[in-house]
Amino acid sequence: MPNRDTFQMPIVADLLKHERVGFDRWIDPFARNSTFANERNDLDKSTTANFHEDASEFLLRWKHEEFDGVVFDPPYSFGQAKECYAGNGKEHLIGTVTNNRYWSKLKDGLALLTRMNGKAICFGWNSNGLGRKRGFTLDRVVLIAHGSGINDTIITVETKIHKPNAELFTND
């Protein structure tokens, strides 16, 4: 079954453990209570993340190619964003964090932060990942079926094989 803390699902915990081998420095802009990444952010101040900022602001803190790996597990829908962020003073961002343009901008930033041959692990209801235009090649797709009436979780694991255009992620 789905879990609000995605990384607590046994199949996800096993995947992350396997993919982490040889990769030490990770970043996660939607970490909730996960301790997988070294640098963890979540808007919800009640979580154990070490930063509580909008994800786009959080990504601007870091240098290009600073991380061995990135994880991208945002709220997948408006309902999930509302569940995660309502009542903590961040309500104005609920619609933003489920907007495709906003997600695309975050993916651009994550691509720039990932070193060559680094990993990107993306979660959602689609298998888009960071993608070729951002310099990644798809290694594998994992589908977690949750049963009738509940959307599946789709995980992509990618490796950065070339540098994306450095102008992808800007402050505009």
Q: Short summary of the structure?
A:
With 172 residues, this protein is of the alpha/beta class. The chain has helices spanning 10-20, 55-59, 78-85, 100-113; strands at residues 26-28, 39-40, 67-72, 114-124, 136-144, 153-160. The relative contact order is 0.17.
Walkthrough of the structure:
The protein has four helices and six strands; from the N terminus they run H-E-E-H-E-H-H-E-E-E. The relative contact order is 0.17. It is α/β, with parallel strands linked by helices. A hairpin with an 8-residue loop joins strand 5 and strand 6. The protein has helices at residues 10-20, 55-59, 78-85, 100-113; strands at 26-28, 39-40, 67-72, 114-124, 136-144, 153-160. The model has no long low-confidence stretch (mean pLDDT 85). Strands 2-1-3-4-6-5 form a six-stranded mixed β-sheet. It starts with 9 loop residues before the first helix and ends in a 12-residue tail after the last strand. Helices cover 22% and strands 23% of the residues.
